[in-house]
Amino acid sequence: MCRWLAYYGSPIRLEELIYKPSHSLIDQSLRSKLGVETTNGDGFGVGWYVGGEPTVFHSVDPAWNNRNLRNLATHIESQIFLAHIRASTGTPVQESNCHPFRYGRWMWMHNGSIAQFATLKRDLVLAVDPELYPFIEGSTDSELMFYLALTFGLGDDPPGAVARMAGFVEDIAAAHGVPDALQMTVATSDGERMWAFRYSTARHSRSLFFSTDVRALRDLYPDYPWLQHASDESRLVVSEPFGTLAGAWNTVPENSYGVIQEGVDRMGVFRPRT
Amino acid sequence: MCRWLAYYGSPIRLEELIYKPSHSLIDQSLRSKLGVETTNGDGFGVGWYVGGEPTVFHSVDPAWNNRNLRNLATHIESQIFLAHIRASTGTPVQESNCHPFRYGRWMWMHNGSIAQFATLKRDLVLAVDPELYPFIEGSTDSELMFYLALTFGLGDDPPGAVARMAGFVEDIAAAHGVPDALQMTVATSDGERMWAFRYSTARHSRSLFFSTDVRALRDLYPDYPWLQHASDESRLVVSEPFGTLAGAWNTVPENSYGVIQEGVDRMGVFRPRT
Amino acid sequence: MCRWLAYYGSPIRLEELIYKPSHSLIDQSLRSKLGVETTNGDGFGVGWYVGGEPTVFHSVDPAWNNRNLRNLATHIESQIFLAHIRASTGTPVQESNCHPFRYGRWMWMHNGSIAQFATLKRDLVLAVDPELYPFIEGSTDSELMFYLALTFGLGDDPPGAVARMAGFVEDIAAAHGVPDALQMTVATSDGERMWAFRYSTARHSRSLFFSTDVRALRDLYPDYPWLQHASDESRLVVSEPFGTLAGAWNTVPENSYGVIQEGVDRMGVFRPRT
Amino acid sequence: MCRWLAYYGSPIRLEELIYKPSHSLIDQSLRSKLGVETTNGDGFGVGWYVGGEPTVFHSVDPAWNNRNLRNLATHIESQIFLAHIRASTGTPVQESNCHPFRYGRWMWMHNGSIAQFATLKRDLVLAVDPELYPFIEGSTDSELMFYLALTFGLGDDPPGAVARMAGFVEDIAAAHGVPDALQMTVATSDGERMWAFRYSTARHSRSLFFSTDVRALRDLYPDYPWLQHASDESRLVVSEPFGTLAGAWNTVPENSYGVIQEGVDRMGVFRPRT
Question: What residue intervals traverse the membrane (chains A, B, C, D) (predicted)?
Answer without folding.
Answer: none
